[in-house]
Amino acid sequence: MFMSRYLQMRHKWFTRGFRLVTESLYTKKMSYTESPAKASLCCEDAGAHPPPTFAMYEALKDSCQNNATFFQPDDSENGQRLYQGFMTLIDHIDTVWPLVDHVRRVAPLYDLDEKSPGNGYRSFVSVVDSCILHGLKLSRQVCTSRDALLFRKGYFVKEIESCGQLLASLGTCLHHLHTLLSWAPPGDLFPTEPHSPEELFSQADTINQYCFYGRCLGFQFLPSMRGILKGISICMAGFSEAYYSHGNLISSVWTGGQYLIDPEMRARRIVNISQSASVEFCKAFWFLAESEIMKRVPSLMSSTVAVNKLITIPPEPITVTTTEGKEVTVLPPTVHIGLQGLNVRLISVNKRMGMTGEGTSTLPPSEGVVFHCHGGGFVAQSSKSHETYLREWAAKLNVPILSIDYSLAPQAPFPRALEEVFYAYCWMLNHFKEIGTTGKKIVFAGDSAGANLIAGCTVKILSMGLRRPEGLFMAYAPLLVSFIPSPARLLCLMDPLLPFGFMMRCLKAYASPNASKRDDKQGTNNSQNALSNATTPVDSNGFLKVSPSQEGISEGPSSFEEVSPSDLAELQAHKSGSERRKSSDTTISAASLQSEHTATGVTPPEDKSQQYVSDFLERYVLDSDTDSEGRRIPVIKPNRARDESHKEAESENSSTLVGEPPLVDDFESKEHKKRIKTRISEAATGIMGAMSSRLAYITGSNTITKPTQEDLAVRTNLDALIARSPSDEFIFSVPRNPYLSPYWADDQLLNRFPPVRILTVHLDPCLDDCVMFAKKLKRLGNVVGIDVLEGLPHGFLNFSLMAKEANEGSNLCVERIKQLLDLEAAPAPTDTNHL
């Protein structure tokens, strides 16, 4: 009997060793990296039968079959779930392969050219291939560790099932791609006939978005970005707790920690946020990049610069000269929010001769200047939050950068931001000396929403006959602000930074905030602003009016809307200097998140501990808002303090170049200060109370019990919102306006565009916008180039200090801008007074 048992054990050891050796050789033969599949290569040799990538799909099937055979005799619950999970993966592979193979073969037809492979079809093929690589990695981990004593069956059950759900959802997306292929001829990424997203989604089953934000979150991105994206997703879910938890911030942070250890709970929360949260939540979350802590990061980690200041442009008429030598008067923007000052940020690695407020400098003015617009979905962020890469650009380009803090939607929707960018450009044309340049070379640069604005501004410049910039650099630009479905736009269904709901709400807030009220008026004004014959300044163009003399104020319309007599009177007062306004901060850190407050009574006394918290909360106050069901809920909103010495870092200052210092408005009244102190005190009291109660709960001797269903419902009331199709609320009209969507500009204007360099990423929902716009320019004979980077997300420039590949992408931006500037090597920095 002993001999029999010995032989059995020997046979078992021999079999196990043989299997491990075989699997080791198999693994070496079919070695794949953890990096995602490259979209630029996923369609290479697609004409082969079968293509090289077919081996990867077969390798996953073989590995899954191996594991399924191993776990089939396992009678435990997790063992049977593993068996079923691997068999389900095999079924999904068989379903997905013919769908992705067809898209793989036709995807190269939609590239700009052979040197620039990139379009939404390629991107989706690479996403599916990345999912296969992810599944192959998981399956091999199971193969190598399933015999171990501490093999975690429960963990791998969830991982394998999540991978199966992911592949099934991608199969549904592939069905949608086949529908899109039938809607447009080869080469066109947008349908030639009107088709809505609702029509597209009705062609196949509903896409399960939860699998994209759970255990598989970030599988399609570079490994260096996955941790960052996971952290942001956890912060988003946790922040929603604070946003919807009646001001109990400490308790929200406590419960928000669950999203770190529970991927399924995090996925559910993020999908519900995307479908249900308002644009105000998007603004509030992105506003975190404007916090005092984040504002200190660029000065600590980025390149040092000698000049970093805010300049306030007062709302006064500006006289500029057209390319034909005519003088025109540019009126300051008045639409939506009236006359306000405009803040622009000047960043320069050196102090130069003539720079305002910089004393004397021996360094001559730069021949070039970069005119920059920041991103943020038209609703958030500012030039300050984009300093992470602007400082690096200023140091490497050695030219001044002027970044515009335009007004933000929904308080200031289209065309306010475009007006302000155009107005700032006209101001720059008259103030080259003050910003340290001769203005010989002007290059426009912008990312995301900012890229849309500089492209729209270029359309306006050309239609007005003003001096055009020498080049345009655009990063991941949304150039078609509309809801026309395209393959790349389906990527937002799985994007951690730009989910479908976020993108739709931002575009709606900017392009059509009150469609029912504005359609008629905007339609009339847009038709009057047709660009087919707008090659010279005329009275009806909105921005400009030909002025034979420099006296008087133009009486023409201002930016798509009529200027009222009161506006003209106010403009005249500005020009004469008899009346002045205070220039408002138009960034996310102030005006765009303000609401009307009511007095709360006598300010309660504050003790020292509350005073410390009040000092910490000086920039933030608790206010109320309305959720999607009409309930009053508390939210965190910024303090509208106007003291520049508190708002800017020690190394930063502000100045007003034109006109006298503005007067302080009513927001600095004593009553307003009392109300702010009252809310700060209430917020401090609430936080201190929450902290005390939480500490007592932890240290007390009471039995720790699980929260009741009612408790969970109270603190996760966002999840209680009625589930609905994410496209239900996005049925509204967007004007086909070339200022809003530069893609719609006519060929006559596009043919006059300066050289254009576009940089985008394969996983960007706006990729198809960039490719189709570049195709238009190339067809007209324009100088245009496009770079499409692998494995990076939309908005990667904001992570240039955190990931190597993002930093390399930022360096490529610098190289492209240098090519557009086409300047000789600038002199080495000589000033030592750097920030």
Describe this structure in words.
This protein has 835 residues and is α/β, with parallel strands linked by helices. The chain folds into 3 domains: 19-208, no CATH class; 289-514 and 525-581 and 732-821, Alpha/Beta hydrolase fold, catalytic domain (Rossmann fold); 595-701, no CATH class. It has helices spanning 2-29, 54-71, 77-106, 120-145, 153-183, 197-201, 223-243, 249-256, 258-261, 263-276, 279-286, 292-301, 387-397, 416-429, 449-464, 500-511, 515-528, 565-576, 608-616, 644-647, 670-699, 709-715, 747-750, 767-779, 804-821; strands at residues 307-313, 318-321, 327-330, 342-348, 366-373, 401-405, 437-447, 471-475, 544-546, 620-626, 632-638, 653-656, 756-761, 784-789. The strands form 3 sheets. It has a 9-stranded mixed sheet, sandwiched between helices. Helix 15 (449-464) links the parallel strand 7 and strand 8. Helix 19 packs across helix 21 (670-699). The radius of gyration is 29 Å and the shape is globular. The relative contact order is 0.12.
